[in-house]
Amino acid sequence: MSASRFDGTKVPVTGGASGIGRATVQRLVSEGALVFAVDLDVEGLASLEGVHTHVADVSSEEAVVTAVAAAVETLGGIDVLINVAGIHRTTPIETLSVDDLTRLFAVNTVGPAIFCREALRHLPDGTGVIVNVTSSSAAHGNPYMTAYSASKGALLAFSLALAAEVVHRGIRVVPVSPGTTATPLIEGIPADLDMSYYARIRSLMGPATPEQIAGVIAFAASPDAAYITGAEIRADGGSHV
Length: 241
Ligand SMILES: NC(=O)c1ccc[n+]([C@@H]2O[C@H](COP(=O)([O-])OP(=O)(O)OC[C@H]3O[C@@H](n4cnc5c(N)ncnc54)[C@H](O)[C@@H]3O)[C@@H](O)[C@H]2O)c1
Hints:
Blueprint: E1 10-14, H1 19-30, E2 34-39, H2 42-46, E3 52-55, H3 61-75, E4 80-83, H4 98-119, E5 129-133, H5 146-166, E6 172-178, H6 198-201, H7 210-221, E7 233-235
Parallel strand pairs: 1-2, 1-4, 2-3, 4-5, 5-6, 6-7
Helix pairs in contact: 1-7, 3-4, 4-5
The structure holds nicotinamide-adenine-dinucleotide.
């Protein structure tokens, strides 16, 4: 690990209050970054130390515009954007609802996309980076996850297209796709579902820790990954080999 990869680097991180986003915030701070953590969770944000915080719902375009403006004003610019905020729903096809689809796409796809649009007005040519956290389920079939997987697949496709669109500016866009990770997100799966399916998406290595995924995100955002753009980095412990 390089102690100075992010010295003075200005980084908004969405979803910074919990799980993978929180571990990412802490990893970046430990490497010298100036972090602006954005989340809905007021208490989770308040318990972070050494970072600027901002309460916002990323599914609101107005809130995202305001959050990016606040990040620029607070940090004095944006060097790297990391979109981690996301929600999961267990949606057996028989009970799939328009409300579930709409909410999953609003938070998991539209929110990060608008964050990218706004941050790109500020990211520096030559060194700017966007990391979008997708999911291994974006490209691999997982039962009861049709809506979630579709929202993450859309974010993956968005990220690849955006990488091609901004490569001439020397800005990198890297989708990072975790497999099952031990965070609050994966709790709350209804007890009446056949849980045997879960074995399919679980690595023999067990679930990742949020810190393991944060390490991959930090790598993708760092100069160590300077030649990686428009390529998904999948961190799923070999669940889909
Ligand atoms: N945990 C896993 O197994 C797993 C696997 C693959 C991908 N992911 C993705 O990783 C990301 C982080 O998930 P996690 O596992 O750390 O979950 P988590 O629930 O611990 O953290 C998600 C964070 O996003 C925030 N958030 C949710 N909706 C928001 C909104 N509308 N506006 C602002 N903030 C919002 C939550 O408050 C929370 O702090 C998500 O995008 C998730 O889809 C997780």
